[in-house]
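Could someone model FE2/S2 (inorganic) cluster with this protein?
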Amino acid sequence: MMENLAIQISASSCSQVLVKSPCASGKVQNLPQSSLFTVSLRTGSKFSSSRRPVALRHLCKQYVGPRCSTLELAKPSKENEENSSGDSRELLDRQEETDVNRKTGSFNWLEQWYPVAVVKHMDKLQPRAETILGRDLVIWWDRNANRWQVFDDACPHRTAPLSEGRIHESGHLQCSYHGWTFNSSGSCTMIPQLEKGREQALNSSRACVKIYVSMEHQGMIWVWMDRAEGAEERAAANPPPFIPYLNDPNYVFDIGMMDLPYGYELLTENLLDPSHVPFAHHKIQGNRNTARPLNLKVVDSHIQGFSAKREETMDLIFHAPCLSRMDFRIPPPKTPPKGHPLALKVREWIASRKQPKVDEEVKQISTIFFCVPVAPGKSKVIFSFPRNFAQLVFKLTPRWFGHYSHMAVIDSDLLLLHELEHRIQERGGDIKPLYFTPALADTCVMEFRKWFKTLAQGKVDYGAKSSSTLPPRPPRRVLFDRGISHVAKCKICSGAAANFRRLKEVLQIVSVALVGLVGIASSNSWHVLSNFSVPLVCLAIASAVTSIWLSRFIKKMYEYHDYNHAVVE
Ligand code: FES
Ligand SMILES: [Fe+2]
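Reply:
Sure, complex below.
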């Protein structure tokens, strides 16, 4: 049936919307409250009218996927304009009102979801310390509730860090200082030092740990940082951003994480700046010889972020406070296929037998980064690069090797950003006299700075840890320490590092044992073995050399790996 519809999408009124349009169909889930769009469209057919083409385009790209790049929106016809229902007009008016609010409101840093850890990196037996917005948190696996919990990392007895505690036999979180124990709701269930007056102390609100609203979402643990009354309702009404690729079986991806020695602003602007990749990540993720002008254009901006694009090949979204996402489409090569005419005919025949798919030949890769404000001069990045091609390579690559590649990428501009942040701070924190940005490649960096200054108060709400001074510059060895930035917090890498260390020790033992064996055999004229003394000595040398190589490999992979741009050709 052909009819015009007005659709209002708002998480406060509905969290699931069925989108049926020429560009996409399917369920759109987990919409943040700010996603208020009003569109006029024809169901099951080409659009005949749209009052908000940009909003619809934004909606489709953000929640349905980049296939919508082919979407064509026709200008509203006079007839349809006149026939719009009263309801539709009312919704359109409300949209305009919302647009104004979205551009002029004030961003609340606490009333947001922040990803705090990657589920696959977590150890269920080990409480984990994390800091978000200067607030210390402990994340622990609550087997009674079958979920991760996020508590304030301070014991109500004498503020010892609960992250240094343990999971008690009851499944509750136990403080390791005097043994107070806490259940899923933060209530104290045990005070070993008390007999008399025990019940009264346990029932006191002062014996409770403060808890945060948290959830597991798309492979990450998320925390809602606002703890004021009604926080649970506000958190439910504003779900974290939903990334369609992370739920799409046609895409392969892993999720990585690193703690960084520079703050949220530098991390976010860096991840909204694709033009640094060929230089700062030369020979790792790009190549300086392929750098080209990047004409980026902002298409929509509001209090919850902005979106930009580069022609038809790249879309960029900043969804405040954390998400920086770039979608790339790699069109098929335009050169005619080469080969023997018979082989070409066979290929053509096979292609004609295949089920036609939408965008079958378009390779897509997305770079998804969550920039998490930890404390002044410190941040955390959680990232994923889902793609719909080269799936076999991904499946055959061990996860620990994938993590090594991620660390190599992030380390290669780490020192630049750390130093840049200190320079900005030493000159009073104002980037205006320091940045000269004549190229369109810097569009998103400047748009982010504009959002930060005008809508987000020009500073992150770090609570009691707010400070205008950064932590002192650590030595280079500490800056590039992979144990601090990743390995200690990753079950996959710490497990792989332990296995490599064990292998190194085994090789050393084998080497010494073989040399000893050859020595005994030759001194005792032990005929059987003395005949093999040359191969045994060779084997001993090979074991020793491999163990030396392994110790360098372990150091480079899991301990420290510097990056010197000047020596990379
Ligand atoms: S400080 Fe936690 S039990 Fe004493
Ligand atoms: Fe790892």
